[in-house]
Here is the input.
Amino acid sequence: MSAALLAEQLLNGLQFGVMLFLMAAGLTLIFGVMGLINLAHGSLYMIGAFAAAGMAALTGSFLLALAAALMAAAIVGAIVEMVVIRRLYDRDHLDQVLATFALILIFSEGTRFLFGSLPLYLDTPDLLSGPTTLFGGLEYSKYRLFIIAVGLAVGGGLFWLIARTRLGIQIRAGKADREMIAALGVDIRRLYTLVFALGAALAGLAGAMIGAIQSVEVGMGEPVLILAFVVIVIGGIGSIKGAFVGALLVGMTDTLGRVLLPQAFGLFMDASSATTVGASLASMSIYILMAGILLFRPSGLFGGQA
Amino acid sequence: MTLKTIALAGLMAGVSTFAMAQEPVRVGMITTLSGGGAGLGIDVRDGFMLAMEQAGRDDIEVIIEDDERAPDRAVQLADRMIQSDDVDIMTGIIWSNLAMAVIPSTVAQGVFYLSPNAGPSQLAGAGCNENYFNVAWQNDNLHEAAGAYANTAGYSNSFILAPNYPAGRDALTGYQRMFEGDVAQEVYTQLGQTDYAAEISQIRNSGADSVYFFLPGGMGIAFVRQYAESGVDIPLIGPAFSFDQGILGAVGDAALGVHNTSQWSADIDNPTNMAFVEAFQAEYGRLPSLYASQGFDTANLMLSALDVASPDDPDAFRAALEAADFDSTRGDFAFGPNHHPIQDIYVREVVMVDGVLTNRIVGTALEDRGDAYADQCNM
Here is the structure.
């Protein structure tokens, strides 16, 4: 494999990883701070994508579409937190899983009712469409570079928010001791709504950005949700740093596995069965990675006292 | 709505004291109506129901269910239709992995299966069954034609790409059966995959002079959009599934001028097809795809057999199906010994007509093509 191809595949892996990070960050924050398993996180991703597609169809502006995705996902997230999720904090995880699974069904059917079951398509803006030439004559899609840039910027912003702001202190404190922070006079209900809306907005942003290169359809969030869970389990539940490292690991493993495994099997098998076996094994690779990491670090790479 | 009227009519015929003692014929349609594969199932259903409506028969009840492209869901629906709805005929499945999960047990229980789309090689060869008919094609067919086309177009080194499921493996086998050039690389993706960045990078670095890809439904839309975005300019060839009417609308100008192979096209010049295209547009307000034509042909085949015999008399009904005495949108249509079609396969080009992208026939790739598995079939 040439160096150019390897570099391009690394960029692909990075782009996929960054997208997973946007999903996993919200999921891990919500679990870390509120102790809540939110299966409906994938629906917020879908809502972001549909809001973007709707706004783009109305105005034709990609920036407005992204803004609409952030707003819609955050608002829906806040409403869901206040109406449903708030009642679940003291219940056990099984109740949370049941209730948020019901939310998936409600959002999926609701979206199908509003937009129909056929996929929608969101166009990339003219400024970002087509390829650009990088170092060493490497050609790469501008839009995918844009996703990487946005994802890294959001990641940086999130670290700053958690480490350097008052809200970040409250989030960290809420994670450590829920009763104590309430006793100190922090409005814990408002904090929870805020964290939930923040996580939802990140999922919505991921959905809108991915919607432009794939398709916007009902049920698009669930496959990503599964991967996001793999990411936070690998990274350690509740840790933003873990989510970031886990997302990049999963993104790279998946992309490189898809490329390298069939070629590796090709060394000692005939081409057609090597591609079949390689492709099948590639789809398992991230789960093997997860199992391997859990074997040595049962609470994930950056998981503290679970 | 059409479903309801027909179901209601069927029900009324059943309870009316004036109706004949005969039960209505029940047809179970399991197809994909949601998610990334929805376009295909919706077209098959609409084509099928258009033929039913034109026939105006009130003694046939069609039960339609969505399988969501999930094999376990399809199996569940099929069990319910056979055991509690007591269907006589089943149809509708789009995807070959679902077909493999449902069809063998369906026909083993004495229910007729008319496939409007999926034609996995297993069911054409050793696994063929007297009660299974494929009205579309054996999976390999369109890909064989594409391989033959690639030879005449002068390509000598193809990058080939398909999802890792029965029809995907049939596709790449079919292409290589006819293609005389080299294969630069053979890549299998996941069924339902929506991001093709890794594959497109491989194509860019492969040194191939042509890319053959089989990605039906939403997968094809995602691939062609991302391919255009990536700036790779190696020419694409595909079967009609990669450039059907549903995909063209979503892909846009990126598809213009691309060649693809199909057993059907809106511009095949025969009265049945002309009338079908016009009626479909009038009813649904969009151009029909090959899937719609397959649904329409499946219904008309079934209706032609029901005119002669009832499924309660399986031998007579089977003989009536084998005769294939109906006007196909494809013109000539006949079944081979394994109940798969023998038909011409055309090369089409994507063109712009009155501001709408569509396909136009530019030549014939294979004439009277049966399939490669017929002699393994022992019925």
Remarks:
- The domain at 141-262+344-376 of chain B is CATH 3.40.50.2300 (Rossmann fold).
